[in-house]
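Please fill in the sequence for the structure shown.

STRUCTURE ENCODING:
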């Protein structure tokens, strides 16, 4: 019996989530071990922001990967999209280049709002320096060296709200896709069960054959069933073609 798509989804989701947690703590532990100067920041971390931000970005990333799969379903295209997103997130959200330099370009600052990961990454950055106002001033020997405004008007709830909305949208897309797959699988299973029952009936009839006349009658009956099935299949295909043509005409009329 095939595994349900829902069970398979939650199994893969759980594995990926646990994997994200493990890798995060592993990298964090390595960083604290080999860069002891980072330990001085532990006392000023805003832990509620950090933990909630990590949880939401883990959740968002896993769900977003499923949406990419649903949207493209081509391994090469998915790999290209994932790679592009990786470099955008790495280099434009402060992981590659200093974020306070990136946001100096207004057009780039606006463009970053369209990257789903931007919101929680900014929360994590603010949590690391305990800046719940989403604004941070860096001082060196008492002198202001640079400032960074994460672009939410000082409102911490905005990135949380946007991220939660994105998660809800991604969950809805995945749920609709799984329901669609489940519906067609059930339809295929119904057809398979009917075909199997009919085949078993023919096998039973063949076992009970006493003479050639019975065999000829079964053969003719089977031929009529096959002809009826072909006619039905052609009618369904023709109906689908008409629906597609009508939709295309309606779309052209709306455009004109």
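FILLED IN BY: designer on duty
SEQUENCE:
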């Amino acid at each position: 019996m095939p595994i349900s798509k829902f069970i398979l989804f939650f199994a893969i989701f759980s594995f990926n989530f646990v994997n994200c947690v493990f890798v995060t703590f592993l990298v964090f532990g390595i960083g604290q071990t080999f860069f002891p100067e980072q330990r001085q920041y532990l006392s000023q971390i805003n832990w509620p922001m950090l933990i909630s931000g990590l949880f939401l970005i883990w959740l968002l990333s896993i769900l977003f990967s499923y949406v990419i799969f649903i949207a493209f379903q081509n391994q090469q295209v998915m790999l290209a999209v994932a790679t592009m997103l990786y470099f955008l997130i790495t280099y434009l959200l402060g992981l590659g280049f200093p974020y306070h330099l990136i946001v100096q370009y207004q057009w780039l600052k606006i463009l970053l709002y369209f990257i789903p990961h931007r919101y929680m990454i900014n929360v994590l950055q603010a949590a690391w320096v305990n800046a719940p106002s989403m604004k941070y001033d860096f001082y060196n020997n008492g002198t202001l060296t640079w400032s960074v405004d994460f672009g939410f008007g000082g409102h911490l709830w905005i990135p949380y709200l946007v991220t939660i909305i994105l998660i809800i949208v991604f969950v809805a897309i995945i749920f609709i896709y799984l329901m669609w797959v489940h519906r067609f699988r059930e339809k295929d299973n119904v057809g398979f069960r009917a075909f199997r029952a009919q085949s078993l009936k023919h096998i039973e009839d063949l076992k009970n054959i006493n003479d050639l006349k019975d065999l000829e009658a079964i053969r003719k009956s089977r031929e009529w069933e096959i002809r009826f099935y072909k006619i039905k299949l052609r009618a369904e295909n023709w109906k689908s073609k008409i629906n597609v043509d009508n939709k295309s005409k309606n779309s052209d009329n709306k455009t004109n």
